[in-house]
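To assess whether the prediction recovers the assembly geometry, we first specified each molecular entity separately, as shown.
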Amino acid sequence: MLVYLIRRLSQAALVVAVMGTIVFLSMYAIGNPIDLLAAQDASDAEKAELARQLGLDRPIWEQFLIFAGNAMRGDLGKSFVYNEPTLRLILQRLPATLELALTALVFSVALGIPLGVYAGLKPDSWMSRTIMSGSILGFSLPNFWIGLMLILFFAVELKWLPASGRGETVDLLGVPVSFLTWDGLRHLFLPALTLSLYKAALVVRLARAGTREVVMQDYVRFARAKGLSYRRIVLVHVVKNMMIPVVTVLGLEFGSMIAFAVVTETVFAYPGMGKLLIDSINRLDRPVIVAYLMFTVLLFVIINLIVDLIYAAIDPRVRLVEAKG
Amino acid sequence: MSEATLSGAPSAPPVLPAIDRGEALWRRHLAAFFASPSAVLGLAVLAILLALAILAPWITPQDPYDLRQLDIMDGTLPPGSTMGAGFTAWLGTDEQGRDMLSGIIYGMRISLGVGAISVVFACAIGASVGVLAAYAGGRIDTLVMRVVDLQLSFPSILVALILLAVFGRGVDKVIIALIVVQWAYYARTVRGSALVERRREYIEAARCLALSKSRVVFRHLLPNCLPPLIVVATVQVAHAIALESTLSFLGVGVPVTEPSLGMLIAKGYQYLLSGKYWISTFPGVALVIAIIAINLVGDRLRDVLNPRLAH
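The predicted structure of the complete assembly is given in tokenized form:
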């Protein structure tokens, strides 16, 4: 177990280092951020001075060595635009993004499991067909457009919910969260719903396939023969067993939710990490882009590891030693 | 389902008639494809959209990029208004007085074009890599598949965003980014079927004839790995179009001078909150129709070309 963890973590470190190197070097090969950062009427001397301050006048290998050396100590450089450590900027926005992604995860389970189980229990009813067609739409429609339509309907036409921002936050253990205030919840609802629809469609498919497989099993037949109520058979015997693939996939998809939050946050002007990335790309704020990427890659690797561990905990048949391949 | 399977006993595996001529097989696939009304509808819609996109300069009432034809007085007119030039803007106009219908047809051109071109290149590259990896086996195969796994473990939107942050805006750059994020899917798909096919007798026979390695791989192995590849490619066109529109919406995709549907939606975003819904909504509807049509075709192709995957 310990060997397994060490092996996985060292693989993770390698991936992060390789990604960081590739992005750093390609990022610095093109585009000149000085033109965007310096004032419109700045003289060449002023520009050169700015480049010197930011360390951009040195040869690229030297810049890279400085960056790599600092990165080893957990310092990913300072933002050109905010003049603050990039890691702090990202961590400031992390709670908002995590809150959004977790809420979306809850939504997709709450929507997807009941609909999927229903479609699996009654595969031929018209309701099930509607659910499955709906899930195809959830898969294929561009997420940002769904967000815009939700804004148009709920914020512009009905004026029920706000269209942008995060709303009021309160500190929970020193972290600002918005799900504890009514205003925050109202701001959270539409972005979280938008972000959840794609995953909800996925959960519907998984839950339906899982349910159809589980109801054929002998233990469900046996439970029926014992005279258990339909409700108990579905809730205990069917749902519990079809949850295994759902949990795995959802765990793996949590990382992609954080990535897709980039789009949702832009649509709803939600102040998370993704919005920071888009703003930084538009302003050529290289250190933030590099730091965001390295941070996200690390997050992905950790999520994948946690999913593997949870998977082993739910399903005793899985042996981690076999999974190392 | 083809008739061959329906006539067999329910418990027996589907009995397919022995077919030795490729032509007959394709005819059978075509017949099976056209048996599904939704797939035919999807194909028809797709054909109409393609025709509109190709014929755009001749059928639109206005050339949306010819600034001389634009009149600022026509700005943000609601759908059904009469333009200064005399024709009716059935879908309204944007802030520069551009007829949305014309803009959408031109935008469809760029969206479909970017989707199709990126898929063709990604497919060619991915399929070649996948089939070579499977044929070579051993270390090369392991190395290629490690790279594929690594790439697929990151969401395509993130990879594309980073690439475009490096490249900058541009239609050609979006296409390159889409190729980079897509090739791995094809490589994995083709490798999977090539691993099965390379053990077949006809490959052995081709080798015994002392045919060159590249001839065996590209003329014998690859053509037999095509059916799953076609299915993946169709669905990927829809993905590519959706991804392109998302990137353009985020402002890192196509430039303002060549607006795709995603760019049109992004431009209408600021007007959405003031109730001018048509600038964002209609390009979105066009995008959604195109994506659904492609998916309907792709779904049916999957059922026809790969009976094992049905349901």
